[in-house]
């Protein structure tokens, strides 16, 4: 490969969740495969949760905002010719033509009301522009590819599917077990608290269980959405808001849960259910197209808008050990279909 590979490193200033995890894990896989690349980062104040000792990072500019990505970053490439800029978390600079962008999903077009006015306008303008000017577009599922074709009118041969996978830390030996002296029955949910994650329906479904011995643990950072939508549930001691936790803690929450529930209304992929599968935790997920693509028969599907059905399926699963074992076995096999090495090799193939 003759072209020099640069990667937009703005993600390193943010927590390793969601799309940032996709970028980080691909960079780690590149290192393991011996692929040379340079991360261009806007600041030396990198999030401490990233292990960057093997990364070649160049610092350029003074701000981590969209202004850096659209205005400052392009200045770096003045007088540079034989290169490609990879943007794994999103769009990247509009004016740079030698780039590959990643569109993880088009939720902001599917339901604009899930997002703020500024967010909707910004991405509604930039997404089509970046899609048209990009050499290739990466996305994380065949479902998202079909959405890009439908909403943005992009020809299908310009779009390549590069799947997510389970974070590499889940395969490392976990010596720290904060639950070793705790005996508690709980259902687990993991996600941001965005409206499309549909936690309000999950909470209503959970309350219908009427079992005081079981609690609902929710992992995810509180934000303005939480303050306005979920604060009424703070008084319910059966619902535990854990906030953001470390990867090591998260592994244990999965491991000891009765089941994992993912009631999202719209996703481009959905990593948490795969994390649960690797952790031998049975999964309940929304009956939406993308989940059938990613999880196949390894989960129990529910209508995410039907709290009665969600509650009934949770009750069914936590009381049926045979069904739990079946889902754990299917989940283990399904999760093995995805790996960051496979995804990194796919990116390299695209670059060639």
From TrEMBL:
One biological-process term from Gene Ontology? Answer: lipopolysaccharide biosynthetic process
Gene3D superfamilies reported in the protein's UniProt record: Glycogen Phosphorylase B
Q: Name one Pfam family in it.
A: Glyco_transf_4
Source organism's superkingdom?
Answer: Bacteria
InterPro entries linked: Glyco_trans_1 (IPR001296), Glyco_trans_4-like_N (IPR028098)
Query: Where do the Glycosyl transferase family domain residues begin and end?
Result: 181-332
* The keyword Electron transport is assigned to this record: no
Chain ranges of the Glycosyltransferase subfamily 4-like N-terminal domain: 17-166
Q: Which terms in the Gene Ontology molecular function aspect does this entry carry?
A: glycosyltransferase activity
Q: Which UniProt keywords apply?
A: Transferase
Write down what this protein is called: Glycosyltransferase
Please spell out the taxonomic lineage of the organism that makes this protein.
Bacteria, Pseudomonadati, Bacteroidota, Flavobacteriia, Flavobacteriales
């Amino acid at each position: 490969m003759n072209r020099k590979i640069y990667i937009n490193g703005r993600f390193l200033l943010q927590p390793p969740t969601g799309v940032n995890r996709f970028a980080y894990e691909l960079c780690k896989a590149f290192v393991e495969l011996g692929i040379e690349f340079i991360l261009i980062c806007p600041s030396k104040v990198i999030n401490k949760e990233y292990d960057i000792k093997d990364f070649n990072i160049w610092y350029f500019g003074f701000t981590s905002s969209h202004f850096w990505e659209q205005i400052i970053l392009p200045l770096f490439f003045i007088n540079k010719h034989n290169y490609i800029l990879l943007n794994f978390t999103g769009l990247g600079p509009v004016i740079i033509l030698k780039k590959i962008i990643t569109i993880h999903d088009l939720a902001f077009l599917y339901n604009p009301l899930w997002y703020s006015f500024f967010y909707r306008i910004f991405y509604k303008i930039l997404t089509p522009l970046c899609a048209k000017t990009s050499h290739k577009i990466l996305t994380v599922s065949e479902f998202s590819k079909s959405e890009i074709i439908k909403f943005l009118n992009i020809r299908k041969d310009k779009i390549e599917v590069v799947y997510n996978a389970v974070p590499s830390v889940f395969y490392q030996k976990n010596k720290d077990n904060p639950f070793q002296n705790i005996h508690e029955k709980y259902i687990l949910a993991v996600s941001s608290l965005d409206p499309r994650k549909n936690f309000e329906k999950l909470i209503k479904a959970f309350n219908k269980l009427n079992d005081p011995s079981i609690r609902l643990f929710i992992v995810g950072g509180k934000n303005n959405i939480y303050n306005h939508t979920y604060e009424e549930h703070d008084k319910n001691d059966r619902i535990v808001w854990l906030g953001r936790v470390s990867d090591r803690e998260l592994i244990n929450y999965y491991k000891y849960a009765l089941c994992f529930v993912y009631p999202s209304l719209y996703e481009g992929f959905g990593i948490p259910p795969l994390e649960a599968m690797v952790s031998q935790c049975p999964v309940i997920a929304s009956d939406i197209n993308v989940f059938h693509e990613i999880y196949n028969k390894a989960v129990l599907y529910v209508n995410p808008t039907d709290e009665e059905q969600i509650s009934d399926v949770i009750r069914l699963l936590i009381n049926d050990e045979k069904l739990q074992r079946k889902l754990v076995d299917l989940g283990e096999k399904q999760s093995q279909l995805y790996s960051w090495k496979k995804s990194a090799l796919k990116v390299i193939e695209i670059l060639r």
